[in-house]
Amino acid sequence: MISFMKSIRYLFRIGNGPSSSHTIGPYRICKYIKTNYPDAIHVCVTLYGSFALTGRGHGTDKTIIETLKPITCKITFDYKTKTEHPNTLKAEIYMKDGSMEVLTAVSPGGGSIRINGEKSAPEPEIYPEKNFTEIKEVCEKNGWDLVEFVRQREGDDIFEYLDTVFDTMMDEIDRGLVTSGELPGKLHIQRRAKDFLVSKYSEESETSNSFRLMLAYAFAAAEENAAGHIVVTAPTCGSCGVLPSVLKFYKAKYKKTRKEVINSLAIAGIIGNCIKYNASLSGAEAGCQAEIGSACSMAAGAYAYLKQLDIHGIECAAEVAMEHSLGLTCDPVGGYVIIPCIERNGMAAIRAVAAGRLAEYALSSSSVSFDEVVQTMYRTGKDMKKAYRETGKGGLAEELKKSKK
Ligand code: SF4
Q1: What is the pTM (predicted TM-score) of this model?
Q2: Residue 105 and residue 165: Cα distance in Å, rounded?
Q3: How far is the CA of 337 from the centre of ligand 1 (A)?
Q4: What is the Å distance from ligand 1's center to 348 Cα?
Q5: Which residue has its alpha carbon closest to ligand 1 atom 8?
Q6: Deepest in the core among 14, 49, 76, 188, taking most CB within 10 A?
Q7: Is the dihedral of CA 228, 231, 234, 239 positive or negative?
Q8: pLDDT at 3 > cutoff 70
Q9: Hey, which of 19, 343, 390 would you mutate to test ligand 1's pocket, going by the most ligand atoms within 8 Å of its Cβ?
Q10: Which ligand 1 atom is nearest residue 239's CA?
Q11: Distance of CA 137 to CAs 23, 26, 143, 266, 272, Å?
């Protein structure tokens, strides 16, 4: 049987922020170079597209130089040459014996990489199903729920990995909640997660309290990412705060066991995988709807699972979350993953829960499938002007250019 999707462990990658496509991807490309070209002494790297336009703000150049060490490196930013994928780099690798080899690689989002003429074995494809509709059919035929489906395809090991993922997510929130001060870069933005921990009111409604804490958790993780610290791509670094925020808050609120929360991560993973293999997780390719929209969809699915909705309810929640993220542009000010990214994580966490609630009440009248909205997101992303796809040339990035210099 031909398989299409890879393990969800490649969706939830653990690494340094601030950007899965612009730091984790290039980090992995450089590791590949070091492993496969042991005689390399110098590398000339050319960055194209979004890599060139926002690479400095995202720290792509620093990541490449640091990872390649002790191999020396020269980086060129090519703003003009058009490439098939916006996150493309070319490496001219010079060997001890004076020979040179050229490698081109793409970082399509979420820390994945594609290397032309790859020398090592690629990550295996283990899911024969192509999309959510096929997953539903298999589940119905076999009487599986989505968690059992993931177990059948991935084996029990995946839940051990998700355990580590969950701990790392909670660590990023815990660290972010006790840290204050200025985030790195030229924007001079202060961390704010801590400020949301204490209510300004002597009495606070349950809803207001929920919003405040979800904002605190999402900001904490997103600020840790902006600081370049260890986070989990969920599904990207820039959107890393959405899912952990929802999980932390609702684990406590509904007194969910660790096992239930780990299972909900498997649900989020399979939703993210469907988006990854049928559309895109890359802001440079399809705008922020592909990053924050996907994170929102994954978190909504996880929330629906925690609220004991069945596979149809989970699909509806994930669909609604993505449907109402359509059109979201990627316009990071100064190329940093700070404005609008950090607040966007908080807002998406709240929206994910709203999508889950909508699914609870309006499932029977739902008329758009998850697969349809994923295709719509991708097409909308392709239609988006390039300025709104992680170039730092449109939207807030353009508007705030002068004031934030
Ligand atoms: S605006 Fe969205 S897609 Fe763009 S860098 Fe920020 S979080 Fe990522």
Answers
A1: 0.92
A2: 27
A3: 6
A4: 12
A5: 238
A6: 49
A7: negative
A8: no
A9: 390
A10: 7
A11: 37, 37, 10, 18, 18
